[in-house]
Amino acid sequence: MKGVERRLLGLLPRRVLVALGVLAAAQGVLMVVAAGLLAEAVAGLDAGLLPWLVAAVAGRAVLAWVSSLVAGRAAAEVKRGLREALLRGEAPDAGARVTLLTRGLDAVDPFFAGYVPQLLAACVMPPLVVARLVAADWASAVVVLVTLPLVPVFGVLVGMRTAALTGRQWASLHRLGGHFRDVVAGLSTLRAFGRTGHQSGVVRALAEEHRRATTGALRIAFLSSLVLELVCALSVALVAVPVGLRLLEGGMGLSTGLLVLVLTPEAYLPLRALGARFHASAEGVAAAEEAFGVLDAPPAPSGGRAVVGEGVPEIVLDRVTVRYPGADGAALEEVSLRIAAGERVAVTGPSGAGKSTLLLVVAGLVRPVSGRVLVDGVDLADMDAVAWRRRLGWVPQRPHLFAASVADNIRLGDPGAGLDRVVEAARAAVADGFVAGMSQGYATVLGEGGAGVSAGQRQRLAVARAYLAGGPVMLLDEPTARLDVRSERALVEGAARLLEGRTALLVAHRPALLSLAGRVVRLEGGRVEVPVGLREGKAA
Ligand code: ADP
Ligand code: MG
Fold this sequence. Notes:
Structural class: alpha/beta
Number of helices: 18
Bound molecules: adenosine-5'-diphosphate, magnesium ion
CATH superfamily of the largest domain: ABC transporter type 1, transmembrane domain
Radius of gyration: 34 Å
Largest sheet: 6 strands, mixed
Strand order of the largest sheet: 6-7-8-3-9-10
Order of helices and strands: HHHHHHHHHHEEEHEEHEHHHHEHEHEE
Mean pLDDT: 84
Shape: elongated
CATH class of the largest domain: Mainly Alpha
CATH topology of the largest domain: ABC transporter transmembrane region fold
């Protein structure tokens, strides 16, 4: 059993586990009793035993129902607990959490409702049956005892092979998906260069590889159940044939023989079913693994309660190193930087240099593995994260707009703001002109994801948002990338007003935006290169 499964099992309250175990044992006992009654009734042609037989079978069914009820409730309880923990958690990965919270965690149902009861049955039933067989006919009991371990052994062997094949299948599916996305994104370019024929060949080859992997995995899956069936059938035959011969020779009573024949398959059944249940629960185990991963992730810095003044702060990065989980190298390595109060520092560097990461660190959204960020001398890690974020204005590289009115989109910076302040912010961000030109002005409702505004307008709305938020610290992440010259000029004009009298860090490439900065720092591969002085900073 993997660690995840053990941990998942550990989430079940002990009393539920005990209850399920007792129920499984009671079902086993009833099964053995029913087999005995059946053998007696048939051998003795005794109809008087039939009501008892019916009662035993019915009792077993009722117990199975109660057991599934208990397991289902426990599953719901565990899911609720996990969801609460995920909701409460400060884990930074919002995307993964949403999937888990909504649909993902329901996948653990088969684990609790199917796999766990079956696991208990597999623990309880074979010993019960073997014990009864020892009492009835020890020779048969020995055969069962010897062949019983073959089922799990073959199951594990086949399972390992299936896991390897399924892994290959997943890998090829990922490759196919990634390649397909690239091709679709670059379709117009490919057409222009007459390379569509080649690409369809590549997609066909990848699809063929995926098809082969899938059918391979399916073949193994079907073969595996066949192998297990065969092992069980042969084992039962090993018991049945001698019993038949001894019945013929009169070396064994009919009722004993019947009892052995009825009981023997029941010893293998739970083990065989366990394999199927295990496969059915695999998705849930994967979902649980993901949930545990999110829960175990180091919490997003929530910080302490240190309070600093509300003025325009000085920000100092002291040998900050950031490493993303799963990444090889460091995104930022020993970056030291001092941004004086009211200073505007531009960050340049090639893509992947760590510019966005630098801004995220200052925003307190990514925690460095070593080094410190000091705000007016106070470590960011000791500060109240919510209060700090309230003092920040943030214009991301690709700001998100919501399917709401333009005014509400700007109001995200300060939900309580009246329309006059919204208009003022838009004016400062040079967004007023195009908003006024829209069909219903500030009341115009944008499409899903902000459809209906251009990239430049989107950036200016984000600047207006930051303006309305009005904190003393501004973080701008390449706000003019992909803008035409006119939009750029408008945005820079708006940004200039936004940055006035504030401490600012802006990621910039183009000269227009760089002109707003007092100093330029160049990042390369997560390290600060020799600073290039454009002009003297206000307080370097
Ligand atoms: P820039 O903004 O300069 O293009 P980033 O700060 O976005 O660079 O990224 C710096 C490095 O960190 C890159 O190598 C990037 O691949 C990696 N990186 C960025 N975000 C993540 C993330 N969430 N998880 C893992 N690696 C990341
Ligand atoms: Mg970036």
